[in-house]
Amino acid sequence: xxxxxxxxxxxxxxxxxxxxxxxxxxxxxxxxxxxxxxxxxxxxxxxxxxxxxxxxxxxxxxxxxxxxxxxxxxxxxxxxxxxxxxxxxxxxxxxxxxxxxxxxxxxxxxxxxxxxxxxxxxxxxx
Length: 126
Prior knowledge:
Layout: H1 41-124
């Protein structure tokens, strides 16, 4: 039993339907408090089983979070390695292009030299 704000004891009413709760309209203070019926043994078993499942899911979530952090760290290391390899690749491709340009330049020089020699020979021996 609860003591109302007006000082009198409240009656215990049970809800027997799904409608709105009943109020004790005979008193002026309109005090109202739901009283839950006692749980059955089966209800306690179900609640405990659900709590155990919730704890198991929480532990699974914690393990997954730890694993995710580990994978994120590995991805950062992998990303750093990729950046490093890209820089090395760019450096090597730059060297290869310089070498190709140098070769093609020397080929052009050789070709120009041959043309000049042929021109000189043709002009000199006419």
